[in-house]
Design brief:
The chain has 844 residues and is α/β, with parallel strands linked by helices. The protein is 31% helix and 19% strand. The chain has 24 helices and 37 strands. Helix 24 links the parallel strand 36 and strand 37. The chain starts with 10 loop residues before the first helix and ends in an 8-residue tail after the last strand. 34% of the residues are buried.
Length: 844
């Protein structure tokens, strides 16, 4: 295998590498949703299928592709059937919010058995339960007692929809509206209060952390039943449990809802995607029978239009119903997703900023104590609830955001793109289709088709090619642009496109609000002069581009909200960013900046700034950070103890995410270690990386409240002693790297229940480590392990052989005996073990 990083391989090197890897192993390759015979031919050419050790599973919507594949392999084509009516109904219920309707329909049947459950629960246990739970019950305020006792009417282990529980409490008269709150809000607060008292268990929450379903512990339920019997309360509900009839508030007829729901799924004709999308629409209609009937009628209209057409078009027609059902404020947000290509992982935070810059989310949309980001998150959540967008969990997540990216199904992407063009909202261009060799094969240019003209106010260009394009032709003819987005899809941003002063005529696009030019090489390393005259600009991104200096005219843009200066190389700035009063999001290059005049970059005055990445204590005035009263996200590098103290002692209540990198700091004094100790108590500290720091003692021991939201901890080449077992007490730690520590114990033991959230562990150059033990229950979520250059470590802990979460283990530059022992161990078949010499350190 080549020693260089896989992202730098060209096509031939990559195909040869993959083929050599597969020749040595048995493999199963799954190719999902293949759309062309050419794509299959390209992949097949690199597969060593002749040795009979490999299997390929292909899914496709095109029958001719499937037939072509089976003819070559002499295999059988399996036609995936549609869902049955029963399966379709089950899927629709699953798609409804927290299975709300399914829960209620099942409840009617389960209540028939409640009387028997009650009598069994009372046998010999009530007295003992009363002794344990009674104290908590008698200390409950009066307004909670009725709500609590009512929990006894539900079957054991029953998952209670939160909305239904609150409605039942209200209908029984257990809830009265509190001052300034609606009765529904008061009921919800009662439920949350019981959860906090551990008398009720929240089992499902939505993306915003709101409880959507709960459950009663069997012991607590038995206690409630005993009180119901003794005090003769909830009599009507108790009697209804005997007949199996339980009414919810209002005149909702669940049987009618079921009848209409089954009619709806029958019109989806067993197509899963159609059912999921329709479920997303119905989910927001809740118990409203007339609304369900309206959806059914609309589907009937779409179905008539689709008679006699192929399945794919029928799906598209059903998906159009989901778009038509969107409220006015969500339609532009959804259509804007068309600027991203298929299968693209859309960065959620970036999407929020683009929506804000476009004006889809304004100050009028947010409520008290709610930021525009909160509103944007709510909009995205609603699209997710409608099954139009899919969230993808970030590798590591913080208190601010559990999900890092989003995307959608290819059919939904087709709908989004076609609607965006149909309504002349946005046009997306795949740059690879418009490359032309003007002068020679080495002088390629991107030629925009004349058909673009002036028909679109938003233009997105996606670049996904390796060779450079010397320039772009045709954009100078495009007038009236509101948004211009040029970005690359690759793993890393490289400067692949030349951009000249005359590429865009800014005079004819003077109302431009968004200008994204990523991975571009600007002529002479300078931005176009006319760019500074775009007074309406809200979003400017130069990510990955080659720009030597930011012109002063940029600082005169009165409405600029987002400034992304993460350029390819160092950039020179004038010290006037502090005058950009409306700036909300500032991204600086990780490898530093140069401030003209030699001063440190000032930030005071940026009272609306919410995001600040990456500033450096050597070039930025760190003392200005506490003055940024709106700051929510901070990523900072410091190289002195005083700067570290300022960052860690910041008491800004708005700050929710702090990522701190400490480099070359002498923390040997007791005062400095106390600063670090207090800083680790900060609830906003999400990431801590320390490089070559002198601690002259032990890394801090855990105490209650320390690192309560710390997700990533990396310690590199630090002088001092580390106690690995202490890190196991950090409640949210997901990624841990310990690299070349001078001192540590020869034997470490990861105790049961330690490292409850840890997913990624890297142990590198730990000379002292000889024995490592892992008890059952430790690291229950570990997925990736790296052990590198730990010459005295005897073996991988036996406890890891029984891990159900471990997926990858990399052993690098370890003694031969250690590596051979790892190969002989009996790990689960789903654990990928790679034993590599150090020079082959790259990811596949």
């Amino acid at each position: 295998m080549p020693s260089k990083d896989i992202s730098s391989l060209n096509y031939d090197e990559l195909t040869n590498t993959v083929r050599k890897c597969l020749e040595k192993e048995k493999f199963l390759l799954v190719l999902d949703d293949v759309w062309s015979v050419g794509a299959w031919e390209d992949i097949k050419a690199i597969l060593p299928l002749e040795n009979g050790e490999g299997k390929v599973l292909i899914t496709t919507q095109e029958k001719n592709i499937g037939k072509r594949c089976i003819n070559e392999a002499n295999e059988t084509l399996h036609n995936l059937g549609f869902l049955s009516i029963y399966q379709s109904w089950e899927l629709l219920q699953y798609c409804l919010e927290d299975q709300l309707m399914k829960s209620q329909l099942n409840l009617m049947h389960e209540l028939e058995m409640m009387s028997q459950s009650v009598s069994e629960a009372l046998q010999n246990r009530v007295t003992r339960i009363a002794e344990v739970v009674g104290l908590s019950y008698h200390r409950l305020p009066n307004y909670l007692r009725g709500c609590f006792i009512f929990l006894g009417v539900f079957p054991e282990d029953y998952e209670i929809p939160a909305k239904m529980l609150c409605e039942l409490w209200i209908s029984e008269g257990f809830v009265l509206p509190r001052q300034g709150r609606s009765i529904e809000k008061s009921a919800e607060e009662n439920m949350n209060d019981l959860i906090r008292r551990n008398l009720l268990e929240g089992v499902k929450t939505n993306l915003m952390g709101k409880v959507k379903a709960c459950r009663v512990n069997a012991m607590i339920r038995a206690f409630c039943i005993s009180i119901i019997k003794e005090e003769n309360i909830c009599e009507e509900v108790r009697q209804s449990s005997e007949t199996g009839e339980l009414e919810t508030s209002g005149d909702t007829d669940l049987k009618s809802l079921e009848y209409v729901g089954r009619e709806i799924v029958s019109k989806c004709e067993g197509l899963p995607l159609s059912i999921c999308v329709i479920g997303g629409i119905l989910r927001l209609k809740e118990y409203d029978l007339p609304e369900w009937k309206k959806v059914n009628a609309n589907m009937q209209s779409y179905s008539r239009h689709g008679e006699g057409v192929e399945d794919y078009k029928r799906v598209k027609q059903m998906l159009e119903l989901s778009y038509d059902a969107l409220p006015y404020y969500l339609k532009p947000c959804f259509l804007y997703l068309a600027c991203f290509p298929e299968d693209h992982n859309i960065d959620i935070e970036r999407l929020y900023l683009l929506w804000m810059a476009e004006g889809f989310i304004s100050d009028q949309d947010n409520g008290p104590n709610e930021t525009l980001r909160d509103v944007a998150q709510g909009y995205l959540t609603e699209l997710v609830m409608r099954c139009m967008v899919q969230l993808r969990k970030d590798r590591s997540y913080s208190s601010l955001n559990k999900f890092g990216t989003c995307g959608f199904h290819i059919s939904m992407h087709d709908l989004c793109s076609s609607k965006a063009e149909e309504e002349k909202f946005l046009k997306r261009i795949d740059a690879s289709k418009y490359l032309a060799d003007i002068f020679s094969p080495t002088q390629r240019r991107l030629v925009i088709p004349p058909s673009i003209g002036n028909s679109e106010s938003r233009l997105a260009i996606n670049c996904d090619f390796e060779r450079k394009a010397s320039g772009i032709d045709g954009l100078e003819e495009v007038k009236g642009l509101r948004s211009f987005i040029l970005f690359q899809n690759g793993l890393s941003l490289s400067t692949n496109i030349g951009f000249k002063e005359s590429t865009i005529d800014f005079k004819t696009s003077q109302y431009l609000r968004i200008f994204v030019v990523e991975g571009c090489e600007f002529e002479g390393g300078k931005l176009p002069v006319k760019l500074g005259e775009l007074i309406h600009l809200r979003y400017l991104s130069l990510h990955g581009s080659e720009v030597g200096e930011l012109p002063k005219s940029i600082y005169n843009m009165p409405y600029l909200q987002t400034l992304d200066l993460r350029v390819h190389e160092r950039i020179r700035l004038s010290n006037v960013i502090c005058k950009m009063k409306r700036l909300k999001h500032l991204f600086l290059p990780f490898h530093d900046i140069e401030v003209i005049g030699g001063e440190k970059l000032r930030l005071d005055g940026l009272h609306e700034l919410e995001t600040l990445e990456w500033i450096n204590s050597e070039t930025t005035c760190i003392a200005d950070i506490p003055k940024l009263i709106s700051l929510q996200t901070l990523r900072v590098r410091v190289r002195d103890a005083d700067s570290m103290s300022i960052v860690l002692s910041n008491k800004n209540s708005q700050l929710s995410v702090t990522c701190l990198q400490v480099e070359l700091c002498d923390l040997s004094s007791e005062k400095d270690m106390e600063v670090l100790n207090e800083g680790l108590m900060s609830p906003s500290l999400v990431t801590l990386r320390m490089f070559e720091c002198n601690m002259n003692g032990s890394f801090l021991y855990y105490k209650q409240g320390m690192c309560e939201n710390l997700v990533t901890l990396e310690l590199h080449n630090c002088k001092g002693k580390v106690d690995m077992e202490e890190f196991g007490k950090y409640p949210m730690l997901q990624e841990l790297t310990v690299y070349d520590f001078v001192k540590m114990a020869e034997t470490i033991t990861f105790r049961s229940n330690s490292f409850p959230q840890l997913e990624r562990l890297e142990l590198v150059r730990l000379q002292d480590l000889k024995k490592w033990e892992v008890e059952k229950g430790a690291m229950p979520k570990l997925t990736s392990l790296l052990i590198k250059e730990c010459p005295n470590l005897e073996k991988v802990p036996d406890g890891l052989r029984f891990s159900s979460s471990l997926r990858q283990m990399r052993i690098m530059n370890m003694p031969r005996e250690f590596s051979e022992r790892v190969k002989e161990e009996d790990y689960a078949s789903f654990v990928v073990i790679r034993v590599l010499p150090d020079e082959e350190n790259f990811w596949l």
